[in-house]
Amino acid sequence: MNMTIRLDGLGRFLTAIYGDKTDLPGMLDGLGFEPEQARRLREECLPAVAEQFVEAVRKKLTSGDKDLWFRLLSRRYGLDGEPPMSLDEAARSLEVDAGYASQAQSDALQKCRYKKTQENLKRELHRIALGELSKGRGRPEKQQVVNKLKRLADLHAAVDLTRMDYEAKRAEVLKKVQTELDALESEYQPLLDAAQENASALETEIKNDVLLGGASVRTDLYQAIYVKGRVSWDTDGIDRYARAHPEVLQFRKEGQPSVTLRSVGK
Questions:
Q1: Buried b / exposed e along 32-69 (16+ C-beta atoms within 10 A)
Q2: Residues 94 and 155 in one domain
Q3: How many whole angstroms separate alpha carbon 136 and alpha carbon 240?
Q4: Is 6 within 8 Å of 79 (Cβ atoms)?
Q5: Which among 138, 162, 180 is the end of a domain?
Q6: 118 and 147 assigned to the same domain
Q7: What pLDDT does residue 19 have?
Q8: Do 23 and 51 sit in the same domain of this protein?
Q9: Domain-terminating residue out of 122, 138, 154
Q10: DSSP state of 225
Q11: Burial track 171-210 (b if 16+ CB lie within 10 A, e otherwise)
Q12: Taking Cα atoms as reference points, which of 92, 44, 43 lies closest to residue 72?
């Protein structure tokens, strides 16, 4: 397996997905890591990151025990580190018809171009990068995070001061024309209120009609979409049931952890 071929192939594959020229190091640089962490990912961890990312692509393109889409793209772009093949060569190696291979390639790339798939692949890359950086000396000291939080507080304070200065100067400008604005509001606000009231009343009538009809209605400019009631589950009850019937846990999925920043005391 040739890593240069794999990385070049990933670059062509990612460019085909995202439209603009894209490669794996560039995507890593866009994940928000500090410069030294980004350098480590590019210079020390790239082979491991590439291997795991290719596996993430495989999972996205595999349905059940069928992975023709992935195997086709892998051979077309060299994601396996082997020299890339033409479409006809890939079709022959996979023992499928050339026309079928062409459609499969188109369908596979289209799935990867869906916004949801693009976002999922970026999240997977972020997870992989975090895993690689957490090895060895990659974990930041707590004091590093504390220092960054203090810097963040200073930056937000600077933003607040700038906003206050803007609001003060804006108020001075508005004061000069406030009389004219008040007269304009007195003239138009009753008209706006009446129009909004009529629109709201008609909206309510339309919603009632659609609920009674049980089907969506569409025109060139507006549409009333009928949506069935959302099904919800008693989470606590399901958890209790799962403890008694652990076989249902195979259907449970847990998302990736996330971090929310918020100021203290608000």
A1: ebeeebbebbeeebbeebbebbbebbbebbeeeeeebb
A2: no
A3: 39
A4: yes
A5: 138
A6: no
A7: 85
A8: yes
A9: 138
A10: -
A11: eeeeeeeeeeeeeeeeeeeeeeeeeeeeeeeeeeeeeeeb
A12: 92
The one-digit pLDDT tens for each residue of the chain (266 residues) are 799 999 999 999 999 998 888 999 999 999 999 888 899 899 999 999 999 999 999 998 887 667 889 999 999 999 989 999 999 999 999 989 999 999 999 999 999 999 999 999 999 999 999 989 888 666 778 888 889 889 889 999 999 999 999 999 998 888 889 888 889 999 999 999 999 999 999 999 999 999 888 889 988 888 999 988 888 888 889 889 988 998 888 887 777 777 666 667 65
The DSSP string of 52-84 is: HHHHHHHHHH-BTTB-HHHHHHHHHHTTTSSPP
46-61 helix and 3-18 helix, angle to the nearest 10 degrees:
50
Rounded to whole angstroms, the Cα distance separating 147 from 151 reads 6
Per this entry, what is the length of the chain? 266
Calpha distance 235→242 (Å, rounded): 10
Give the count of beta carbons closer than 10 Å to the beta carbon of residue 76: 23
d(CA 104, CA 98): 10
For residue 20, the 8-state DSSP code is S
Name the residue range of residue 132's domain.
3-138
Residue 45 contacts residue 33 (beta carbons within 8 Å): no
- Asked whether residue 262 is domain-assigned, the answer is no
